[in-house]
Amino acid sequence: MRFKTIEFENYRCFINGRLELDEVDGKNINLILGPNGGGKTEMLFAFWWTLYEFDFSRLRGKENTPYALNSDLYKELEQGKVGDVKSCSVILEFEHLNIRYRVKKEITYRKTEKQIRQEEYQEFSYYNNNGELSLPIRDDREIDRRINRIIPKAILDGIIFDGERMQKLSSADEKSKKAIQGVINDITNVELIENCITVFRDIRRELNSSISKLANQTKQKNLEDIIGQISADDNIIENDAALIRDKSERLEIVNSRIAEISEELKSIEGARTLELQRENEKRDVENNNKLLDEYYKNFSASLKEAYLLNTNKLQEDVENIIQQIDVPAGLTVEAVRSVLGRPSCICGREIGPEQVKALNELIISLPPDNINSTLAEMLRQTSDKVRDVKSRCKENYKYITNCETKIKDAKDRIASISSQILSFNEKEAQDLESENTSLHNEKLQLNFDINRLKQEHDSTVHERDDLIIQRDNIGKNNEETNRLNSQLHYVEKCLNAFEIIKEQNKAKALTVINEKLENAYELLSEDAELGNALHIVQDDEEKKYQMIVYLKKNAELLYDKWKSSGVYDDYLYDGLSDEQVWEQAIIECADSNSTGQSKMNTLAFAKAILDYSNEQKETEGLEIQKEYPFLIDAPFSDIAGDNLVKAATELHNFSGQILLMIDEDKTYPSVKPYISSNINKIYRLKKQADQNVTSIEVEE
Amino acid sequence: MMKMNSSNGIEEILTGLEMSDREKQIFKASIKEVKAAQISDDVDAKGSIFEMIREEFK
């Protein structure tokens, strides 16, 4: 299968434009060059949208609008008048088994009083031998059926990749596992077996009807009733099986969505807790700021008396002076005056004018009474005050430092918390919680319905089997009935065989795909040289279809250890096969991936399934050789060194048709030497300034 | 180290279901008819298969 052309009109950022995707002289890479946000991913998923439904919210971070119409035109429509109409379309042509097909998808947007209504329209046609286009098929189910025959929906998960999908496919989430499962189911052509089952069921229905008519003709009322009942039971069994299948599929989707929501809710809950912590920390900062103001005030008050801290020298001087003018305790002015009032000294000597003069000079030179003790007291008080000021200053400084440290720590913690908090919208979180509740209710209901249907199915099968025994007994003597019964018996054996083959085929195919995956990984990834390998889980129920990278040596050591320690025998005793024990060892040794490694894993996966689909199978005609194109956007970003060289060099071997989209400035120069010899055409996407419009130019 | 699952081929499955060689042939031919119908709208797989079964069990 090859894409031939794609043509746009008002679709997303492409107002118009057309790509011719031929290959010439074995050059199988058509290259789309464009800047970031230039529309490469939009173009990639246009293929998906035209063939099937596409959820535009998957283009998160790109042009985030949920409609196919160009967003500028949509805005114009919103601002226009009631009755205004705008439309967008994509026409995709592809070739399969020498027939060229054409799929057109168009959406018309009409402004009404309340909203903008959209009407979707799809048509499918093909060119006959004369190059004339057939009348288009417009029935949605028929179109789906026809497209699905050529390029099944789930296979798109394995052949169309943007950077984000490349990175995610090897993660352990349910969505990725489901995508891998879908690709493997479709690539192993389960559809053919399903179609065989449908045909044989139709035949069984007709045979039952014939037997019933025969019984009616021969008036064997009893036999007719039994056969009628068998036929009715067959219908119930088929309907129940279909309902169980539908509900189980829905249950898988519900479970997958619940798992996704649970992860998102966990993040939101985490963000809420962190938000609470951040608020507490902010309150702490606020309180500490208040305290800090208080401490600064106290510190400032202490500083007013801080001049005292510089009075040590003065105090020493005063102390010295006090010591120098040390006056005996009784030598006061009063005492000298009393001596002057006396005629003679107590020693009997007369007090003459010289003594009087000396005594008067003494009076003048004597310090005031008690000066020593007063000064000493003042000195002591000053000294106490200095100690007090010093201690207060020290204490306040300590408080301030502590407080500032606390504030800084809290601010650091706030910054750290802020970097961990993922932004979330409370309204969206509530919507998510409400969706979660309704999904859980739906899950309960689905489980209930499935159990009820299974019981009904099993009991009807039991009843029908009993009726078949009765019918066979009654009809033994009827030759025609016998003949029809033989045919019916054979048809039932065939149906049984198809069911067994379907299950075995899927398991066998996964083994082959795993071998191809290991080979592709060895070819592409430099980590393979370090002993790493890649594996898709086959048997472990919980991890089935998960892509795991592991160190081979470690898995082998663990496997050998299990063998020597008896763990291996325990596994066998539990019913595991040798292959399943080996897989357990792989699971135990699973390693984590960097973004670049994840991309290499996805490239290896894509190569493995493309190799598988393109290979002639030895499955006795049950699988058809299918060759799919490979569409990939930004495969080389996050990849460097040998990985980049290997991936770029090997890319043209992935498929007969490759549509590669890369950034012209950042990536193209580094991969050009490895891909240029296989490039057929180069298209350039040019984004127009201030408009959501990208033009497509072909390099001649 | 990786080993292939030892699952049965179609032949073994059909033998296990006690089909004769002729029945096995019809079964395999039926698959071819359905495959042809899957590729082309002009093939009536059900009609052809039914005819083969009628012919075998007449």
Percent helix of chain A, as a range, is 55-70%
**Percent in strands of chain A:** 5-15%
Q: Could you describe the largest sheet of chain B, including whether it forms a barrel?
A: none
Shape of chain A: elongated
Shape type of chain B: flat
Number of helices of chain B: 3
- Poorly predicted runs of chain A: none
How many DSSP H or I helices of chain A?
20
Rg of chain A, please?
46 Å
Question: What fraction, in percent, of the residue positions of chain B are helical?
Answer: 55-70%
- Strand percentage of chain B: under 5%
Derived structural class of chain A? alpha/beta
Give the number of DSSP strands of chain A.
Answer: 14
Most residues in contact: chain pair:
A-B, 42 and 36 residues
Short structural summary:
In chain A, 59% of the residues lie in helices and 14% in strands.
List keywords for this structure.
heterodimer; A: 700 residues; alpha/beta; five-stranded antiparallel sheet; 14 strands; B: 58 residues; mainly alpha; 3 helices; 66% helix; disordered N terminus
What does this structure look like?
By secondary structure, chain A is α/β, with parallel strands linked by helices. Helix content of chain A is 59%, strand content 14%. Chain A has helices spanning 40-51, 71-79, 140-150, 156-159, 163-168, 174-187, 190-217, 221-304, 312-324, 333-340, 353-365, 371-420, 426-474, 479-524, 552-565, 567-573, 578-588, 595-613, 641-650, 668-675, and strands at 2-11, 14-20, 29-33, 85-96, 99-111, 116-126, 160-161, 532-536, 547-551, 590-591, 630-633, 658-662, 679-687, 694-699. In chain A, the strands form three sheets. A six-stranded mixed β-sheet of chain A has the order 7-11-12-3-13-14. In chain A, strand 5 and strand 6 form a beta hairpin. The model of chain A has no long low-confidence stretch (mean pLDDT 86). Chain B is an all-alpha fold and 58 residues long. In chain B, 66% of the residues lie in helices and 0% in strands. Chain B contains three helices and no strands. Mean pLDDT of chain B is 81; it is low at 1-7. The chains are: A alpha/beta (700), B mainly alpha (58). The A-B interface holds A 97, 149, 191-192, 195-196, 199-200, 202-203, 206, 483, 486-487, 490-491, 493-494, 496-497, 500-501, 504, 507-508, 511, 514-515, 518, 552, 555-556, 559, 577-579, 582, 619-622, 624 and B 1-5, 7-11, 13-14, 17-19, 23, 26-28, 30-32, 34-35, 37-39, 45-46, 49-50, 53-54, 56-58.
